[in-house]
Backbone:
């Protein structure tokens, strides 16, 4: 499960940062990606990317 989450988040992050290097996005993009990418499990236990904005500010 950890590997699936890591791959999903790495594919979402369209920048290169530290050891995460993408040849299609060679530079850093602090404005968009200097943050965490929250991940949750769906009802079946599969991970999905979860954006806090969908909660309307509720934590």
Residues:
């Amino acid at each position: 499960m950890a590997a699936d989450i890591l791959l999903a988040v790495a594919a979402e992050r369209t920048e290169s940062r530290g050891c995460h290097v993408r040849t299609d996005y060679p530079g850093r993009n602090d404005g968009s990606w200097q943050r965490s990418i929250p991940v949750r499990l769906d009802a079946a236990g599969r991970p999905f990317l979860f954006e806090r904005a969908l909660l309307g500010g509720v934590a």
In short: The first strand starts at residue 39 and ends at 41. The mean pLDDT is 80. Helices lie at 2-12, 30-33. DSSP finds two helices and two strands in the chain.
